[in-house]
Amino acid sequence: MTSDGPAAAPATDGGLLAPVRAGTRAEALTSDSAWTDAMLAAEAALARAQSRARLIPEAAAELIGRTAAALVVDAAGLARRGRQSANPVVPLVSDLREAVRAAAETAGSPGLPDDPARLVHLGATSQDIMDTAAMLVATRTVGAITADLDTAMRVLAGLAERHRDTVMAARTLGQQAVPTTFGLKAAGWLTGLLRARDRLRALRLPAQYGGAAGTLAALAEHVSTTSAAPGAVSREQAAEAALRVAGFFAEELGLAAPPAPWQAERSVVAELGAALAAVASALGKPATDIVWLAQTEVGEVAESSRGGSSAMPHKRNPALSVLIRSASLQVPAYAQVLGTVGEHERAAGAWQAEWLPLRECLRLTGGAAQTAVELLEGLRVFPDRMLANAGLTGGLLVSERLAVHHGRDAAEEILREGGPLDGEPPDPSGYLGAAPELVDRILAAYRRQT
Amino acid sequence: MTSDGPAAAPATDGGLLAPVRAGTRAEALTSDSAWTDAMLAAEAALARAQSRARLIPEAAAELIGRTAAALVVDAAGLARRGRQSANPVVPLVSDLREAVRAAAETAGSPGLPDDPARLVHLGATSQDIMDTAAMLVATRTVGAITADLDTAMRVLAGLAERHRDTVMAARTLGQQAVPTTFGLKAAGWLTGLLRARDRLRALRLPAQYGGAAGTLAALAEHVSTTSAAPGAVSREQAAEAALRVAGFFAEELGLAAPPAPWQAERSVVAELGAALAAVASALGKPATDIVWLAQTEVGEVAESSRGGSSAMPHKRNPALSVLIRSASLQVPAYAQVLGTVGEHERAAGAWQAEWLPLRECLRLTGGAAQTAVELLEGLRVFPDRMLANAGLTGGLLVSERLAVHHGRDAAEEILREGGPLDGEPPDPSGYLGAAPELVDRILAAYRRQT
Amino acid sequence: MTSDGPAAAPATDGGLLAPVRAGTRAEALTSDSAWTDAMLAAEAALARAQSRARLIPEAAAELIGRTAAALVVDAAGLARRGRQSANPVVPLVSDLREAVRAAAETAGSPGLPDDPARLVHLGATSQDIMDTAAMLVATRTVGAITADLDTAMRVLAGLAERHRDTVMAARTLGQQAVPTTFGLKAAGWLTGLLRARDRLRALRLPAQYGGAAGTLAALAEHVSTTSAAPGAVSREQAAEAALRVAGFFAEELGLAAPPAPWQAERSVVAELGAALAAVASALGKPATDIVWLAQTEVGEVAESSRGGSSAMPHKRNPALSVLIRSASLQVPAYAQVLGTVGEHERAAGAWQAEWLPLRECLRLTGGAAQTAVELLEGLRVFPDRMLANAGLTGGLLVSERLAVHHGRDAAEEILREGGPLDGEPPDPSGYLGAAPELVDRILAAYRRQT
Amino acid sequence: MTSDGPAAAPATDGGLLAPVRAGTRAEALTSDSAWTDAMLAAEAALARAQSRARLIPEAAAELIGRTAAALVVDAAGLARRGRQSANPVVPLVSDLREAVRAAAETAGSPGLPDDPARLVHLGATSQDIMDTAAMLVATRTVGAITADLDTAMRVLAGLAERHRDTVMAARTLGQQAVPTTFGLKAAGWLTGLLRARDRLRALRLPAQYGGAAGTLAALAEHVSTTSAAPGAVSREQAAEAALRVAGFFAEELGLAAPPAPWQAERSVVAELGAALAAVASALGKPATDIVWLAQTEVGEVAESSRGGSSAMPHKRNPALSVLIRSASLQVPAYAQVLGTVGEHERAAGAWQAEWLPLRECLRLTGGAAQTAVELLEGLRVFPDRMLANAGLTGGLLVSERLAVHHGRDAAEEILREGGPLDGEPPDPSGYLGAAPELVDRILAAYRRQT
Lengths: 450, 450, 450, 450
Fold this sequence. Notes:
homotetramer; about 450 residues; mainly alpha; two-stranded antiparallel ribbon; 4 strands; about 5% strand; disordered N terminus
């Protein structure tokens, strides 16, 4: 307990209420400081892009880049100051300008204009920096998620192969239905991850640079007015120069160059959210199945993790599965917020409402992906128990066979009268259908797509 | 008012509470009877596929197909009877079997087995039919949506071109910001539709055929036991035959053939929902902007529609935009339900919870797309009013220019002191930046993707 | 299959995709025709209220009432015509006016004004009728839901009492934890329903009557201009007369009389949705627990329902629980839409987006409540199986006891070494804590609140 | 930018991406450290309650309380360690036990048992502590929100009174409809806040204490085994003693004492979420209206805030309204997650998924409430502009009057022909209906409920 109460210190939070991401790479990659780093990286890249286009001196771009890299940011203070303008970029730019001014005074100014601070954030608007930073943060986090998905899929492919013929009961509506194999179950999980990973990979996250309302007018104006002979540059030429900068800007950051600024066209963000929700759901599938299979009465798999309880010393909780499920129950709800339609060239609320749910989509999904690797690598599978459970109903598990031979209704009649199942219960491994072949097909598809 | 109260008749509903889709193609394509038609089409295709694989007599497949096509379905009764099994396929199959039995008796049976009704739904489970029917319905509706999007985009491309240089105020947070052109606004709408359309087009909706738990065991069993010499067919051969049927089944229906049954791996449905939500949001963008631009005090555009009011004779409500917005406010919430993770080989609730929100995603989005064509084709644009509004602030609209020349803080100082704006207000068309070029770029991208 | 394809007939839908409500009272009470009935009832009540306030002739009110009661409404046609005005009231009023005109001509007009049709919808706006109709429909459906909840609670109270001391394993994170009783489980379900029922009961659904923008101006104007001596009625007097009508209107319909029109203040609708979502979640709890307890491997309860499968003759699916769960997975998502904030005196989209999700909240929840009665009344409980399962771990279920005696870590050590559990496994019924007393407390609270 | 990259430091976050709550009381009251403080407060209260019931020595309770108050918690470390058990209580209890052990050694042990650390968390489970801490945090935050709502309502009541007769245009579907007064608009906002505040006030947030699965078995066992003569305490007596502790526990914390543990019956949490979403929507209403009214072209109100832009020196953005809207667009989506139904006595995922959305519901709503006070206290209202806008349509605003006099269709005819509006436009203040009286009624209702 802190001695002086909760209000004394700035309220900073980690993963206390979100253990699925506590201490994971995704959490670090999406922290406040990761976000301010990305904002500063965007400002630095903008200056470099403008210098490449010969619109500002190289020395100024270098000074801005150096200063941005060294700037110590008080994220909580920035957040508070950002309330005035409803976003934190305004105070960040102000701090960066001041730091550049100070650095210019210290360093002297070979090759620098009078007031190099004015070249910070040139022709940009807050949204350019927020959106670009979000795309940078997302790109990095998506990269980490993709890597974890690749590992998880490798493990699943191994499980699917190893248990291609391991008989277990398939269950529909909670009831044993017919036999299947654990390999096919694992292959099904793999299919989900593969589709989800492919969606992540197909994303082309773009930089954003359009100025106040997506027309690049301020930069074009800068081009016109700083050209040697005023009036020598036509509007069209200035526009083309500005567009060139937008392209360089994306290049500098390794982001896609969109055909036009997307500040009012938010499908990028909604697609990203939907792709992350798809990953969270795909990860939630094995986690959910494992919770069901690990039940005391089922016992067909177990987590390697301790899964301890604060009260009951014997408990072996499927803690990692539970963590993953906690993410898959949240992410779709957050992703949905990202589809909110806003008005005009920057929405009064809909844009600002994106930031928090986007971050949680990234980090809860990322945490779940990292947790899934841990879960799957340590998963313990108990084929004997699977077989024993498949025999629990004394052959009812293959009663569908009766329906094939006699018709569904006649089969029910037979079962009611205690028919052919009275004798030796049939072997469930004799009723696997194409389960092993389906494993082969899924593995082949997986290998093609790796 | 019905004389005998609401409980007397079966409760059937149209678009009364959803005028955005009332009477639209999407509504018809997703009605209860469209769904039962699709279920019956799936049963017929299954029989044809099995006949192609020489697992059932061609005459039987033909009889099943003919009977399915002629079956008169009481959807409400089916719905009620389906409560017992938590889905409507069980009673539908029962009705179809009875009809086939009756038809066989009537027709005589050259080439038919003793009880051809047993070949109905052979090796299938309810979910095979529900999921496949959903994909058929979705394919048709997505086709209609795509066509409407194509038309809407054509109209938007025309607007963008025509108004490439039509000056208007861009607005951020509800405030006039800097000049833009109406062409760029229309081009932005176009970009959103284009991305959304491409997502729809990229969908490959698959057939579903896996039997009770996705192993095709019952069909494989059928293969084994109906082969001339019992025991002559190995499990592997029977499995391959069953897999072949699954491929034929998809072909017969014009659906994609998935590597394996997806009954427990629902990303197909979630992706479909997300793609439709993306369309709904993309359509919501012009609708939202039009509501704002059509305000009495703004008056820059108007709908051609009557938009009448029951009380106020002078009102010209942007009714079509309102309808579209009503869809875009609902679809993301419904789509989110489609990401619910279920357990095991068929979920006890999560699967059944998909049907209603999937239908509304399809038909609300479809209704919005059709409405958008009507909206955009009739949109009236008032360039004079745009220009007048852009001049409302006496030049403040281009005050950003001051910031370019003097730095942002100095510019604010100048404005506070009533600086250079006292004279003749500057012409907003002189501060368009790259707006016209951005229109060109977007149109070029659009034309490449058509 | 219909011969001429889906587009031929108007697309009407029942519960095919929502078996949880198929054929239930809630479905009938919320059908399109229930809604148009309620709209007409609102129009009739408005005329009666105005007649009570002596603002229109009694004969006119009676004619309007009679005509409204007899009007045959084509809901689908209304829906289509309603697109123009973005709501179906405009065409409905038009039809009612025409019918009144026709009836007046037929009936002759003792006591009727020249054009009694002009007195239809007097001083009202579309939203008055839509909102009031929604509240009428909701009141009736909430009444049906409350009755079903009362029945369900009575059954649960019986179960709780009967099984007050029936030992079973409590389970946390899917693992057996410590013993509890089935009575306490049932009492927990009861607690949830009781809270949810009390929320429903606390709702006071209000009539809506405010005219074009909630000021009652048109009715006040009518008062002023129809008074004997023009100018004899002050604005204040006209306003008070209009407010009196609003009160009468609510009275006539048995709805609450709000302090002011709530057309722009939608918390009524959001509260209703939240209360319904609470019911759906409360019903989802027993349904979910029953699915888990009815698993083949657990077998502690079973539904009485057939729960048949189209493929597997032995299956006894927990179909009713599945239906209820399908509702509880949807309703919270729909209810959420009802919290959308709209602008000004009537929102351009947010209002119209309420209708569909409100209806589904009502009918899915209502269907779930009716289904829950069926589920609980037929629930089969297997105490022997509960006891046997509680003994599965050979006493680990009461290992917490060791922690009480030796401390949690020491207890884990003991367990690891195969300690005191080697002997006779302890009796779980000796470790019930206060479970029976908690049942008593909950039942007492329930009886107080009935 | 931090020199060593994002992964180096623990990822802690403030309000950078949620300026609506940055630096607000609600943010502080819901921080990680507020949560761990509340957990420790729960542990201390549990010991006190057990001491009051004479189940543990007073000295032990005091030692535990003192140690809990002094414990320095590394929330990020706790979060990471909590992954093993899927919640942070297990490591926190371990730290507290260790600290108690150390303190006992230092302090000597007059009146203490051998190992007082074993009395920490006695008879409790992790969920008892998490849920109770959540209710403590919620109670405090709800208190702060209620206070802000009270202030906001006071301001609104003043606005409503002051502008009771200030004429402005009411707007429906974005179009001017009929006249209203700004006082009635403010009174409508007040109504929404009043309902939302009353819902908050009606909440009775309960403590949670039930042990491993809600039966209080461990504490009852402790009672039995620590009584002077073993066997002297009956099960019933032990159960009653345990229930007494549960009552004391709630008392110690100032929370409600529920009839039974609610660990598996989560309606408390869902109700809390729904109540917060109602507040967020109620706050979103004035914020939304203000954004629309503050538009450049409308200009009827303005925020006092700076609302600066990083690019455009002239902009006066409605920044506070935007912040509030960002909250009202998120909270309903988060609240919805709190309605997720879980299985058995503690859900494997659904419980853990509550924590993050509950926190954001609390703090976004709290931030919005505090921001709303700032917004409303500084709101600038421009009656002249309101009147001017109301005259914009040259009298069309009162065209409804024509409909009252001539019937709606005839009125439209008149308008089309340029009828009676050609002359002097009528005064909108002559068509206010009951607007002023409605203000009076709402204010009277408000004053009754304060």
